[in-house]
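Write out this protein's structure.
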Amino acid sequence: MLRIFPPSDDAVSFHGKTIWLEPAGEGHRELIRPLAKDERIWEFTKTLLINDSYDQQFDQYFNEALALEAIGEQAFIIHAAREEKTPAPGDQFIEKNAIIGMTRIFFVDWKFRRMEIGHTWYIPAVWGKIHNKECKLMLLQYAFEHLGFYRVQFSVAHQNIRSQKAVERIGGVKEGILRKYAIRNDGSRRDTVMLSIIDDEWPEKKERLLRLAGQ
């Protein structure tokens, strides 16, 4: 189910049934640029605004993702591990190894054994499918079972009800709302909904995730 390459003191990759995660590198920049240029992805976060300054915004965004590795954190490219041979009517055909999104491990605190999983996005063609569930399963297994962490948190824009429900579906417990926590790139203020899973809960949450991920 979960294979980690190479040893834990280097960047790691994860391979599952429907997705595999690869550490983000410079070679991914121009592959990701056109995929991220979709207003639907950034409807709630406004991380990237699709306007004349998109390329500049994207380069800053991607540079920040690459810089994580230097401080012991990591951005990942999400690939499809298999092609969809019979997509539903109107769905986009997904080839094996196609890039379908990005995610990050960040706010890593070794003293208190906690971290955050976030900055996750997918191309709309895979929204609501099994890919995100397996992605979270692999990263949570890594956090709790390999690193021995006590807490993994998720922060979601208060407008993004879809993502909040997705985190709750995988077992995230809503802890509260941080009011006016951030300013989005379009200048609007954003409340942040904080959710988490802790190590005591993980065995039960893992069983749920295994079922949701079809494993």
